[in-house]
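Hey,

Quick one before I head out. I ran the complex with flavin-adenine dinucleotide overnight. Inputs first:
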Amino acid sequence: MPVHKHDVVIVGSGLAGLRTAVEAVGSADVALISKVFPTRSHSGAAQGGIAAAIGNEEPDSWEWHMFDTVKGGDYLTDQDAAEVLARDGPRAVYELEHMGVPFNRTPEGRIAQRAFGGHTRDYGKAAVKRACYAADRTGRVILDTLYGQAVRKGIRVYAELSIVDLIFRDGRAAGLVAYDLATGELHLFHCRLLLLATGGFGKVYKTTSNCFANTGDGVYLAYRAGLPLEDMEFVQFHPTGIHGLGVLISEAARGEGGILRNRDGERFMERYAPTIKDLAARDVVSRAIMQEIQEGRGIDGQDIVHLDLTHLGKDRLAERLSDISSFVRIYLGIDPASEPIPVHPTCHYMMGGIPTDVDGRVLGKDLQPVTGLFAAGECACVSVHGANRLGCNSLLDLVVFGRRAGKKMLAQLPNVPWPQLPRDAGDAVRERIERLKGRSSGERVHGLRRELQQVMMERCAVFRREADLRQALEDIRALQARCRDGLYLNYRGERFNTDLLEALELESLLGLAETIVLSALKRTESRGAHWREDFPDRDDQRWLKHTLVALEDGEPAIFYRPVTVTRFEPKPRVY
Ligand SMILES: Cc1cc2nc3c(=O)[nH]c(=O)nc-3n(C[C@H](O)[C@H](O)[C@H](O)COP(=O)(O)OP(=O)(O)OC[C@H]3O[C@@H](n4cnc5c(N)ncnc54)[C@H](O)[C@@H]3O)c2cc1C
């Protein structure tokens, strides 16, 4: 097995991985490993913008941004982390500008900003323009810019290598095993410091805005290695996915003035969020859409509502929302300038993940940093997003906490000796692959995956109930057993064996689905994106705490940790 030695190994080349790498490279030898070519990471699909209280279009302040983030997270947000995020926002955006990101401009030439869900002024009084953007391809331009910086700084990139095991030695991270899609070979990576930036796992659900690579491998491998996962029950459904496909229509469409309407043409958000209406937090809008549909006010009796952009005019759509307009034309054959778009909530973002401190250090079961291991981006839970993330706060999270993790790694490096690699590193993966390839009949990956995605969609999506969650848990465990004992590969060759890769990913999806459902089952209250029909109230007395789930003797066990409250005492959440 080829062995690669680097001081720092970063897994994932979305914005979190790239931003960390660019910071950590200094005197260290840094390598990036990515399952897809770096610029194909899901960050490149981010449309709407990056939030920062630079106040270019309207008065703004980092305190208002922090307040909105905490309220948006339904007070589950750790407020020390939210303060870091909001305070650092303006610096982070100007830094991106200086690196070369082509943001849209105001007529005076300053960075333009637009409104986004849950971002307000004066602590909730009115919507504020806080999202810095580049048309509706903000993630694309930031990803390309940061990739350019990574190339310029000589960071070694291993593309289309998928990590399949993490290696620990004497309680510290020592390296990993990766599978090379092009050759079918396993590679061993040996490092002093390791950072996971493997993104989200929307592929657990049938309808999602996420790309195919978002299967949560890094998060699952950390969990399998015995580390805890935090707040897994909080899964964000974005209100406006293209009906039937889940492809995202950015909140920027509502930020630019788009309106949601029901069967009667009514702007129904006026009833659910009288102050900021269509720009309420995403969990609120997604529930409102589902309620309209359940009460029979969907369009033509179907499970859809309309997103109306017709009043914005052709020119504004072309200038500010051009990619979205073309998605709608391509996928639905509709011109958004003349017809409303049929939409339905789509699984979008994972608030939970690998617990870290504000410097990206991964926390173990004892809530102390695990030596040598870091995480950043959507795979991590800092936790700035609490029970529901605000739009445009993810891109900010990636660059703010990616940079901090990079700085911390660089500072630690001189004192970190090379760990030993165990002699049997890679053996377990090799055996797993041989077992999979050895089977000559059984069930195919895509059938099992589809069943899982259907179970999660039906039983653990926007609305949840105990009976459904119990059934989901049973179904997932049955699927896990079928996956373990009977998965069969159609193609058993070495080169570009995507069948094998998907089989390995399926294990991640199943393991993570189990943690989502179990955490959701235990939390008998409604908060942010976790809405229990059988417990419709938020219960701060019992539940103002983070869920942690970790394997104990091979079984998932749940425990809790307190939320950090600094400036804003929990209040009822009204928009
Ligand atoms: C359609 C869409 C639009 C969005 N719009 C916005 C927006 O406007 N504003 C905003 O703030 N947020 C937005 N978001 C959310 C935001 O884009 C994501 O949360 C963010 O990009 C995640 O970045 P990341 O760096 O953590 O991971 P990603 O960009 O998802 O990258 C993950 C990386 O991990 C690698 N990886 C995964 N598994 C493995 C493995 N096994 N081995 C090796 N590498 C692996 C992948 O190759 C990839 O490079 C949007 C999300 C979507 C889906």
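The CA atoms of residues 237 and 347 lie 4 Å apart.

Talk tomorrow,
K.
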